Amino acid sequence: MHVRYCAHIVNLIICVGLKDIDDSVVKIRNTVRFVRSSPSRQLVFNQCAGMLKIESKKSIYLDVVTR
Fold first, then answer.
1. Does 9 fall in a domain?
2. Is position 65 within any domain?
3. pTM for the full model?
4. Best exposed site among 28, 32, 48, 64 by fewest CB in 10 Å?
5. Residue 66: what pLDDT?
6. What is the pLDDT of residues 13-45, one digit of tens each?
7. Contact 33, 40 (CB under 8 A)
8. Do the Cβ atoms of 63 and 29 come closer than 8 Å?
9. Looking at the domain assignment, is residue 53 inside a domain?
10. Domain that holds residue 48
């Protein structure tokens, strides 16, 4: 019971913190949607990441509200 209560308090604190940076988060989400909406945009994004020598096997994903 105490663990659930603590997790709830931490969740509330994080939600308040995210409201402070909401504009930045919205811009990042819109950018991810824009890149993922077209295979050619994704290709250009991957090429730019390669030119900057950013090595990653992962792709960009939209966040999941429940996580």
1. no
2. yes
3. 0.58
4. 64
5. 64
6. 988 888 888 888 889 889 988 998 999 999 999
7. no
8. yes
9. yes
10. 22-67
